[in-house]
Structures are given as C-alpha cells and as structure tokens.
Amino acid sequence: PFNPYIEASLYTTSASREKWDACANLYSLLVSLDALERAYISSHAVDEQRYAPQCTRLLAQIKTSVKLVTASGASAGGEGPPPVADVDEFMAVWGLNLPLTSHRLSLGIPATLEHPGGGGGGGADRAKNVAETTQAFITLMDALKLNLRAKDQLHPLLGEAVSCWNRLGGGGGQGSGDDSGLGGRREKLVGWLITLNQLRASDEIDEDQARQMLFDVEGAYQAWFRSL
C-alpha cells in the first residue's frame, strides 16, 4: 500500500537519476528561452546587448541537453523518462506549447541576427561600426578563400559579420525586397547561418556550397559598401 509519509522517488539508480535530471534541465532551458524571447519582444524588457549573448548561450545549452535525453541514450530501465527522438518530441511528450522557443530553435540564431537593427548612432560610433563590419566581412571572405569549411570555423565568422552589419541597419535601401537589394543580400547570409547551424561542429560544407557562400558574402559586402 502507498505510504504518504515516505518520500516518493522517480528513480532507484544513479543512471536513471541522471536521465531524469537531464530531462528536468532541458525542460527548464526551453522555458527559459521562451521567457527570454517574450521579454525581448515585449516593451524591450531586455535590450539587444543582454538578449543576444543570453539567447546564444541558451541555444547552445539546449543543443547539448537534447543529446542527453534523445532515444539513443534515454533508456534507464523501466524507471527512466520516456525516450524521445528530438526536441520537438520532447516538447510534445511533456506538454510544452512554446511557439517562440520552437521558432528560435528552428533558426538557431538570436533575433538580433534574424532581423536588422535600426542603424542608429552617429559620428565616432558609426565610423567604428563601419570599420568593424568591413573587418568582419574581409575575415570571413579570407577564411572561405583559405578553404576553411567546418561549421565551427565559419559559423562564428559569419555570425560576427551579420551582427556588425545589423548594428548599421542591416537592410533597407532601394530594392531591399529582392535578392539584389540590401535586404535580399542580408537574407542570404542569414540563410547560411541557419544552414551551418544544422551541422555538427566538425561537419564541413562541400565545395559547391563554399563557392556559393563566398559569392553571396562578396555580393552582400559590395552591396553594403555601396550603401554607405
């Protein structure tokens, strides 16, 4: 019979405890990301300088935590948590309806990279941003020309280029709605960020992808430079 005076336990072994702890950790991270997204879009409760690094950190933590609870490593006898194949199934199993979290996870980048900023600031700040953006683009193009192909080599460089561009506005300008305008050029870079995000750190893009990426980066840089 059930004794209400005895603590109920989900597990009796250290292995199953680790699995339950991993599930609890992932659950809390997903809820935290949703709270961060809501704070960012609601009356700017969190500014860009605080939002971007926190979002990036949460995305990385979630990606790591998912590996601990997926079906390949989740079984711990009959007392382990339900096995899941991916984060979407995890959210479904545990009744998490977090559309903002799902959207951010599907992109794998903070909203500050997904959408351009206002391009505010003038004088010394603008000159500094122009110099940083130029350097970021040149570094990225050099990396591609030197045959760097792995995600962990390219993703940080591309992210920095897009982030710097965003500080100067990132879009707009005549013709921004098509591929030849600033907006279209920038969207291609964001698309590459998303593509790289789907890879493992050691995965590499192939030669055709590298050539296309370099073409898109050079086109974006030239379009941005002409807009100054």
Please tag this protein with its features:
protein transport, Four Helix Bundle (Hemerythrin (Met), subunit A), mainly alpha, de novo design (two linked rop proteins), 228 residues, 66% helix
Written account of the structure:
This protein folds into two domains: 14-111, de novo design (two linked rop proteins) (Up-down Bundle); 118-227, Four Helix Bundle (Hemerythrin (Met), subunit A) (Up-down Bundle). α1 packs across α5 (99-107) and α7 (124-145) packs antiparallel against α10. The protein has helices at 14-41, 48-69, 71-74, 87-93, 99-107, 111-114, 124-145, 151-167, 182-197, 207-227. By secondary structure, the protein is mainly α. 66% of the residues lie in helices and 0% in strands. Residues 1-115 form the VPS28 N-terminal domain. One of its GO terms (cellular component) is late endosome membrane. InterPro entries: ESCRT_assembly_dom (IPR037202), Vps28 (IPR007143), VPS28_C (IPR017899), VPS28_C_sf (IPR037206), VPS28_N (IPR017898), VPS28_N_sf (IPR038358).
In a few lines, what is going on in this structure?
Helix content is 66%, strand content 0%. With 228 residues, the chain is an all-alpha fold.
Summarize the topology:
Elements: H1 14-41, H2 48-69, H3 71-74, H4 87-93, H5 99-107, H6 111-114, H7 124-145, H8 151-167, H9 182-197, H10 207-227
Helix pairs in contact: 1-2, 1-5, 7-8, 7-10, 8-9, 9-10
